[in-house]
């Protein structure tokens, strides 16, 4: 793969714009769960950066955990089969759970995880995602909290990678399709 400098990729959302949206989401979640405590469940690896910021933008009591799922050959012929690679460390039965993702794309990852989480009988289950690409959806699933809804463009940064690179880029940038 060709790794062009991130500085050559057009900024879609700046660090400041992301910060403002994450703070707004945190405030909304704090209102919705006033007096409760929350378990945030991040989906490795992409969600790590958003979860770190979101957890600190939520004023109500919260803890976090991570799950990892296998990637299923995106863009190529896909079976849509998702496999759990790393399970929850903490029990979520009776807890208010918010699954945290960097991006909701086809929906296959989150619909698998939602089913899996519901088997643990949480008190409630919601989804927070930094980005939503509604036109890419293959299975019906919607997030409860979304920072930005975007068209079908390849994005990097703020946790999102191209061949594992660019996750540490502070803003969200468009990666040229011809390079991907
Ligand atoms: C990406 C992204 C979501 C998932 C969304 O993860 O972080 O987890 O794909 O796609 P979907 O809605 O089509 O299922 P990826 O598998 O690239 O792993 P990563 O988070 O480690 O980059
Ligand atoms: Mn991911
Ligand atoms: Mg990825």
TrEMBL record:
Residues that span the membrane, as ranges: none
Organism, scientific name: Terriglobus aquaticus
Enzyme class, first EC level, given as a word: transferase
Pathway info: Purine metabolism; IMP biosynthesis via salvage pathway; IMP from hypoxanthine: step 1/1
Subcellular location: Cytoplasm
Identification of the protein by name: Hypoxanthine phosphoribosyltransferase
Cofactors: Mg(2+)
Keywords, in A-Z order: Cytoplasm, Glycosyltransferase, Magnesium, Metal-binding, Nucleotide-binding, Purine salvage, Transferase
Reaction catalyzed: GMP + diphosphate = guanine + 5-phospho-alpha-D-ribose 1-diphosphate; IMP + diphosphate = hypoxanthine + 5-phospho-alpha-D-ribose 1-diphosphate
Molecular functions per Gene Ontology: glycosyltransferase activity
Domain Phosphoribosyltransferase: 16-162
NCBIfam families reported in the protein's UniProt record: HGPRTase
Family matches, as CDD domains: PRTases_typeI
Alphabetized Pfam families for the sequence: Pribosyltran
Family, as annotated: Belongs to the purine/pyrimidine phosphoribosyltransferase family.
PANTHER family assigned: HYPOXANTHINE PHOSPHORIBOSYLTRANSFERASE (PTHR43340:SF1), HYPOXANTHINE-GUANINE PHOSPHORIBOSYLTRANSFERASE (PTHR43340)
Superkingdom as given in the UniProt entry: Bacteria
The enzyme's E.C. designation: 2.4.2.8
């Amino acid at each position: 793969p060709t790794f062009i400098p991130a500085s050559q990729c057009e900024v879609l959302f700046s660090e400041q714009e992301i910060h403002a949206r994450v703070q707004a989401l945190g405030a909304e979640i704090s209102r919705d769960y006033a007096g409760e405590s929350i378990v945030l469940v991040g989906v490795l690896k992409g969600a790590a950066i958003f979860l770190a910021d979101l957890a600190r933008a939520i004023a109500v009591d919260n803890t976090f955990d991570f799950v990892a799922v296998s990637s299923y050959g995106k863009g190529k012929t896909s079976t849509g089969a998702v496999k759990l690679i790393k399970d929850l460390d903490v029990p979520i039965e009776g807890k208010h759970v918010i699954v945290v993702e960097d991006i909701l794309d086809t929906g296959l990852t989150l619909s698998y995880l939602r089913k899996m989480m519901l088997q643990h009988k949480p008190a409630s289950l919601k989804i927070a995602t930094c980005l939503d690409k509604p036109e890419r959806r293959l299975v019906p699933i919607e997030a409860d909290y979304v920072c930005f809804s975007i068209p079908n463009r390849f994005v990097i940064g703020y946790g999102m990678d191209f061949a594992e690179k660019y996750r540490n880029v502070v803003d969200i940038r468009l990666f040229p399709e011809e390079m991907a």
